[in-house]
């Protein structure tokens, strides 16, 4: 058996064409060009990849992007002041503060300071609350990207056992929230209604769990952690990991070995990461529309 490769590039290109058209219409109607501001403190490698690809994608769909690079040793007060400045800037529709932030900074305080209407990452407590209640304002980019890939390849989640490795606020937790709902805001009830298990570093007997998964999502940040013996034959494997190794970028799953076992698998690069960027473009357009009054 050779797994279907869930190519994120095709999915992303189709969605970006649609976003570009809606950006064009929005511009024609309002005269406003949606603008995304990203704040990058220090030099986290995964963030560098993200920042580069975001700038390209903004240009592609007809939006503007601004990057605010700050030194590793920026103070909490200076970073909060930057966020306030972007909150108040009417030309900025979306604000994204790259994570992780250096250890001396209080990330929660910084993320809480972002105007919820510009919170394109969906990190603000009010946006997370709305998401958990099934009435989201923004959908978090990476989890939304995972759902869009599954939809594109006609792999519904309803009634399926989904096992998510990782419980972070950026991937594992919001993805679990989305998939356990009765319906997905963008993809309907077939792309929700899963039975979700979330595993983490304190989960014993991980392999017993992963072997139960119809859909296995890896988001832990450990290169090639998921091996072929952990996957049920025919299962769908979604690899969210972005790890930099001597051989380039690689995900959290042993991709080559899994091709012989899984029914379908996302590559890294060229998988979920592409969709994260694209769903960020979608959220920036949504933010601009909300700020323009509907
Ligand atoms: N493709 C994309 O668009 C994106 C990719 N990423 C990538 O995804 C990966 C995960 O990112 P993120 O969620 O931010 O990571 P975090 O480091 O915030 O969280 C990692 C999670 O994995 C768990 N974990 C770590 N090691 C193990 C293990 N050996 N067994 C079981 N669970 C484990 C941790 O458990 P515990 O909670 O107990 O510590 C934690 O819940 C990274 O490679 C990151 O670069 C991130 C965002 C977007
Ligand atoms: N506030 C915040 N929000 C995030 O969503 C966030 C973050 N901080 N910090 C870093 C992680 C990581 N992340 C990636 C997104 C896209 C690619 C991406 O474009 N990946 C391409 C890479 C292609 C390439 O250039 O080689 C791919 O996988 O095909 C990678 C990584 C978002 N993150």
From TrEMBL:
Coiled coil: none annotated. InterPro entries: Aminoacid_DH-like_N_sf, NAD(P)-bd_dom_sf, THF_DH/CycHdrlase, THF_DH/CycHdrlase_cat_dom, THF_DH/CycHdrlase_CS, THF_DH/CycHdrlase_NAD-bd_dom. It catalyses: (6R)-5,10-methenyltetrahydrofolate + H2O = (6R)-10-formyltetrahydrofolate + H(+); (6R)-5,10-methylene-5,6,7,8-tetrahydrofolate + NADP(+) = (6R)-5,10-methenyltetrahydrofolate + NADPH. Its EC number is 1.5.1.5, 3.5.4.9. PROSITE patterns: THF_DHG_CYH_1. NADP(+) binds at residues 166-168, 242. GO terms for biological process: L-histidine biosynthetic process; methionine biosynthetic process; purine nucleotide biosynthetic process; tetrahydrofolate interconversion. Residues 140-290 form the Tetrahydrofolate dehydrogenase/cyclohydrolase NAD(P)-binding domain. Pfam families: THF_DHG_CYH, THF_DHG_CYH_C. Keywords: Amino-acid biosynthesis, Histidine biosynthesis, Hydrolase, Methionine biosynthesis, Multifunctional enzyme, NADP, One-carbon metabolism, Oxidoreductase, Purine biosynthesis. The keyword NADP applies. One of its GO terms (cellular component) is cytosol. Residues 6-121 form the Tetrahydrofolate dehydrogenase/cyclohydrolase catalytic domain. The keyword NADP applies. It comes from the Bacteria. Pathway: One-carbon metabolism; tetrahydrofolate interconversion. One of its GO terms (molecular function) is methylenetetrahydrofolate dehydrogenase (NADP+) activity. Belongs to the tetrahydrofolate dehydrogenase/cyclohydrolase family. NCBIfam families: PRK14186.1 (NF010783). Homodimer. Catalyzes the oxidation of 5,10-methylenetetrahydrofolate to 5,10-methenyltetrahydrofolate and then the hydrolysis of 5,10-methenyltetrahydrofolate to 10-formyltetrahydrofolate. This is Bifunctional protein FolD. It comes from Bremerella volcania. The lineage of its organism: Bacteria, Pseudomonadati, Planctomycetota, Planctomycetia, Pirellulales.
């Amino acid at each position: 058996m050779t797994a279907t490769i869930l190519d994120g590039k095709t999915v992303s290109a189709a969605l970006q064409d649609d976003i570009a058209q809606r950006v064009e219409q929005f511009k024609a109607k309002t005269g406003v060009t949606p603008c995304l501001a990203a704040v990058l403190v220090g030099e986290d490698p995964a963030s560098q990849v993200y920042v580069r690809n975001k700038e390209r994608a903004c240009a592609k769909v007809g939006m503007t992007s601004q990057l605010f690079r700050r030194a590793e040793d920026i103070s909490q007060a200076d970073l909060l002041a930057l966020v306030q400045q972007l909150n108040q800037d009417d030309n900025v529709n979306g604000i994204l503060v790259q994570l992780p932030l250096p250890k001396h900074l209080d990330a929660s305080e910084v993320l809480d300071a972002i105007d919820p209407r510009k919170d394109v990452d969906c990190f603000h407590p009010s946006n997370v609350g709305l998401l958990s209640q099934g009435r989201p304002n923004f959908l978090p980019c990476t989890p939304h990207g995972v759902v869009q890939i599954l939809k594109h390849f006609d792999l519904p989640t309803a009634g399926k056992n989904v096992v998510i490795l990782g419980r972070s606020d950026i991937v594992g937790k919001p993805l679990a929230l989305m998939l356990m709902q009765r319906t997905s805001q963008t993809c309907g009830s077939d792309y929700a209604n899963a039975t979700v298990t979330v595993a983490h570093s304190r989960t014993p007997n991980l392999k017993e769990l992963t072997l139960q998964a119809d859909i296995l999502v890896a988001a832990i940040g450990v290169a090639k952690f998921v091996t072929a013996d952990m996957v049920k034959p025919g299962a769908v494997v979604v690899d969210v990991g972005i790890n930099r190794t001597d051989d380039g970028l690689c995900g959290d799953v042993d991709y080559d070995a899994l091709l012989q076992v899984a029914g379908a698998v996302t590559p890294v690069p060229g998988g979920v990461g592409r969709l994260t960027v694209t769903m960020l473009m979608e959220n920036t357009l949504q933010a601009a529309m909300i700020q323009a009054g509907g």
